[in-house]
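Issue 218. Parser rejects a valid record. Input:
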Amino acid sequence: MVKKRLIPCLDVRDGRTVKGIQFEGLRDAGDPVSLAARYAQEGADELVFLDITATNQRRQPLTDLVRDVARVLDIPFTVGGGISTVADVEALLMSGADKVSINSAALARPAFISELARRFGSQCVVVAVDARLVDREWQVMTRAGTVATGWQAVHWCREAAELGAGELLLTSMSHDGTKAGFALELTRAVSEAVPVPVIASGGAGQPADFTAVFRAGGADAALAASIFHFNETALPALKQYLHAEGIAIRL
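Output the parser choked on:
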């Protein structure tokens, strides 16, 4: 049986981990290297590092910081933010990333997904999808969630998978940071529409939310930030809880 994965996320701005609500009101959450080391020690299945200002600042990701984080990890490491060329991906992989997460560049030029999949393998390509609920329809956003694309979320996720994405990182902007639970209907709809793993993101507030997203949402993995960064839920305790709930999880 394929085990479900728990993935802490480091949203990084100016070299620090930050977290807000619905992509706004960011507050400091600590040093990314220290947090990465802690999560690896606590049993995180993977780690995601997102340079959240790289795209809007039109710059490459912080490879020096990525390298520092990679040095303290012995788990799969995904890096995103500002990636728009094959050279960007090469630089991140050379800095210690195992996978890359692309978002705005994929929406601007969907063929970029296929180019990366051919060059590095689909297992290396994670397409991040930021979705906001607008008039009862999930709309895909770009540029760190600031610009509407016209894509409906399930349609874009299906397109990304067909183009070669090995995994989808699905974030509900409407739930992000609210701690009200994941977007279960959206996650289920995407999970049923694509043949690749779906990482649910946005809204984790308590252990029961993870049980719900794995069962009702059909997610393959769940990503969270606030509840881990601010010591509201410890990874080892969460894993024990999920195991007791009958969720297949690596202890």
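Fixed in the parser; the record now loads. The first helix runs from residue 32 to 42.
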